[in-house]
Write a structure and sequence with these properties.
4 strands, 33% helix, Rossmann fold, alpha/beta
Amino acid sequence: MIVEPAIAVQCANPYNPYNPYNPLTRSIAVPPKIIFLCTENSNRSQMAEAFARLHGAGVVEAWSAGSKASGKVNPKAVAAMAEKGYDLSSHRSQSTDEVPPGPYDVVITMGCGDACPWIAGHERQDWGLPDPRDMDPQAYGRVRDEIEARVLRLLGRWQQA
């Protein structure tokens, strides 16, 4: 069919108005999709998703997943996010099979190296954050605050208006 190659050519040009990834028309099209990945999806990636939803509501769509999802969110993460006004108790740890398929606009891995799952994305970043799972509450809070700062920097590219 001739239609399929024409669509491929249109989407290959990032400034084509019909390309949903066109930075000039992106605010009119669908919101950017971000996914945060780690192994268990119970600490870092959960907090990053929560901050993206909290600070990027109506601007981005955010998900998180893990390569070996634990099935539950760490109670330390729930407590740490409650300090920031976000209720993480209704979240649950998910595998990559349970989130929408890519490609995502931005794929963020949380420092899990080769154990991080692979999902298609237009941009990839590794934040290289330590796993706070076994940290004391103060150290856990420092990792949480670093995640929030990085999420805010990431969101800044779409919130500048």
